[in-house]
Amino acid sequence: MSRTPRTALLPAEWRASASLSGVYALRMLGMFLVLPVLALYAKELPGSTPGAGGLAIAVYGLTQALFQLPLGMLSDKLGRKKVIYLGLVVFALGSFIAAAADSVTWLLIGRAIQGAGAVSAAVTALLADLTREEVRTRAMASVGLTIGLTFAVSMVVSPLLTRYINVSGLFALTGALCVLAIGVVAWITPNPQRGKFHEDTEMQTSRISEVLRNKRLMQLNFGIFALQAVMMAIFASLPIVMRGLGLPKEQHWQLYLPAVLLGLLLMVPAIVVGETRNKLKQVFVAGITLIAAALCGIYAGQASLLAIGVSLVVYFVGFNILEASLPSIVSKVAPTDLKGTAMGMYNTAQSIGVFVGGAAGGRLFEHFGFIGVFAFSMVLTLAWLLMAAAAPAPAAVRNLALSISPIWQGCEERLLAVLQQFEGVEAASLSADRSTVYIKARQQGFDEAAAKQIILGGNHVE
After folding, report:
1. Taking each helix axis from N to C terminus, what angle separates 305-333 and 253-276, rounded to the nearest 10 degrees?
2. Integer angstrom CA distances of residue 375 from 86, 290, 389
3. Contact partners, residue 14, CB within 8 Å, separation at least 6
């Protein structure tokens, strides 16, 4: 069985991928860089309550969820770069307001404005405009890798930076980097020759109901909701617990550094085993189990920094496994022409999880202490665990998006019929403009080279 050589990215595609990954990373810094220290910072501001830190986390997720889809749709009409500029300006404004905040009220206003600069959908659409179908998956993967690295670096660097520039300085830094990102988009990111709708990366609002009716996709949406809600609830309360044990916030990196590094190192072999040996469900369920075990460890050992540190290692192994595998499973489960909509709903569920977890974590910690946060987190995690254990294993498939040769013009349905009968093809569909074919194929038994030869017109079927 033959496989075609991997298509190389063109220089313009490398520029687009690198620059937009950087913009996406700056967007995520707004959430991750302040996450380890925000609860403590909010507690020190005038008008604060113990739940204020959680609310400062939550309001960011709320406005992000509200504005993500509208800004993505606006980019289809006004142009990708214009909407990205708008989102980055809004994000920078919110960052500077939060930096200058002299009360919890102004901190919350700044965080809400930050979240409203939701450029994720527009950035993804622009990257799709600037890359060919054959290399788009790799370009999108670079964005995912950037998000993971941003999270890891933020967890360690944030407490260290607060020693020198305080949390207000972190907000000012993210605002300044956002202004820099505008320059990157303007002068480094290529301009698309034309914008088009990409079913594999963009939301189709008319088909949201199909995702809502898809039980498996909704289970995965609940999963990312629970994962984010638990994390935000923990970080709305755990930094306060750690400081109560005598560890200043500037030294919290001493627990986060080994946890993040070991979490990343141990995640890699788990994901490799899951993908290459068709054990993704087992690895996925193991990741949720690790989250549950870590929660028990943190709760049982909340009077010991050592116990918390060990539990954080377990937590980050599970978190990284789930964060990496969830999008992969969504792409395997979603219909070929619905992947963009499925991922759009997935991202919305993620933002809602940030909101619910931050708000609930702060409020529960205020009224019940850490036991309230633990109970909330365990209920979500155990519900998810039961759901994942009962769900079928995802099929060992991969997705391809390929441009159709002009030789097939007017005969696209015939091409689709040929591909649907092709050995190893699970499903195939056409884009709305009939210029692209989306294929979901088995990992084994699919002759990619032969399929490409037909699609590109090298073996035209009469």
Report:
1. 30
2. 40, 16, 21
3. none
What is the average pLDDT value for the chain, to the nearest integer? 87
Helix axes 11-32, 133-187, angle to 10 degrees: 70
**pLDDT for 146:** 82
**How are strands ordered across the β-sheet holding 436-442?**
397-403, 436-442, 425-430
Distance CA 397, CA 403 (A): 20
Output the pLDDT for position 82: 93
User: By CB neighbour count within 10 A (0-12 exposed, 13-18 middle, 19+ buried), where does 238 fall?
Assistant: buried
Q: What's the whole-number mean pLDDT along residues 69-80?
A: 86
User: Residue 74 in contact with residue 130, Cβ under 8 Å?
Assistant: no
Asked whether the beta carbons of 248 and 144 are under 8 A apart, the reply is: no
Query: Which of 195, 197, 158, 193 is closest to 174 using CA atoms?
Result: 158
The pLDDT score that the predictor gives to residue 65 is: 92
How far is 25 from 32, CA to CA, in rounded Å? 10
Indicate the pTM of the whole model: 0.89
Domains annotated for the chain, with CATH where assigned, are 12-133+160-191 (1.20.1250.20), 211-394 (1.20.1250.20), 398-456 (3.30.70)
Distance (Å) of CA 286 to CA 271, 295, 339, 384, 455: 11, 14, 26, 12, 40
Summarised one tens digit per residue, pLDDT across range 258-299 is 998 898 888 888 888 887 788 889 999 999 999 999 999 999
Closest CA to 170 of 112, 111, 120: 111
Distance of alpha carbon 336 from alpha carbon 309, whole angstroms: 42
